[in-house]
Design a protein that fits this description.
The chain is mainly alpha-helical. It has one domain: Serine Threonine Protein Phosphatase 5, Tetratricopeptide repeat, CATH 1.25.40. The protein contains ten helices and no strands. The radius of gyration is 20 Å and the shape is elongated.
Length: 221
């Protein structure tokens, strides 16, 4: 009888340790995915900004945006946040959108997940922005909401499920997030199902498939 009790106890401890390792690994991956997505914003949304306001014309807003980027380059993040916030209030749609993304990214780097999540929520709700950028705001915002207690989370987490469709360009990030959320609530079966989808998805980036395979080795498949 004692042996049976010990075996059950050891299995429970092993499962707990395995889940703890998975959560720690996801926390690391979350920062990686966030950094990748922010870089994509700078490239894709940046192009949108330049296309809307041709930088060669040296418009006033273009100069203000360049000055804000210079503040970032010189590690004056607080002043840069203020500068991007100002641009987002009175610039045209291209620079305004990009400035909001950059402002949120800077708030993340300063540890203000709540402030960043609010900006991403506003971007996700802004119907004047193209769908691909609204969906990206959901992806970026969810990672910030996941750093908050359940009671402090907003509706972005609920929105990410809608991105898990075969034709959505952010579907792989959405599935990673959904797997992470499943792990957080102790639903290893759902997490494994999502991770298997990613690991076997030939359209997923190689890094995503590798991460999914590594997670499967931890949580079991």
């Amino acid at each position: 009888m004692a042996d049976k009790t010990d075996n059950v106890l050891f299995r429970e401890i092993e499962d707990e340790l395995r889940q703890d390792r998975a959560k720690k690994l996801w926390k690391t991956y979350g920062q990686y995915i966030l950094a990748t997505a922010v870089a994509l914003v700078i490239g894709v949304a940046g192009y949108q900004g330049w296309r809307t306001y041709d930088i060669r014309t040296r418009t006033a807003v273009g100069e203000r945006f360049a000055a804000a980027l210079e503040l970032v380059a010189n590690n004056h993040s607080e002043q840069a946040v203020t500068a991007f916030a100002s641009i987002s209030q009175d610039a045209g749609s291209g620079y305004a959108m990009l400035s909001r993304f950059r402002e949120a990214g800077l708030l993340v780097s300063r540890g203000n997940s709540d402030g960043a999540a609010r900006i991403y929520q506003a971007l996700a709700d802004d119907r004047k922005i193209e769908a691909i950028y609204r969906d990206l705001a959901v992806i970026l915002g969810v990672w910030q909401e996941m750093n908050q207690p359940d009671s402090g989370r907003g509706k972005l987490i609920g929105s990410v499920t809608a991105l898990n469709t075969s034709d959505n360009p952010w579907r792989h990030s959405a599935r990673e997030i959904l797997a992470n959320l499943a792990l957080q609530r102790g639903d290893n079966a759902s997490a494994s199902d999502l991770l298997n989808q990613l690991a076997n998805d030939a359209t997923a980036p190689a890094g995503v498939r590798a991460r999914a395979a590594e997670m499967l080795a931890i949580v079991g498949n």
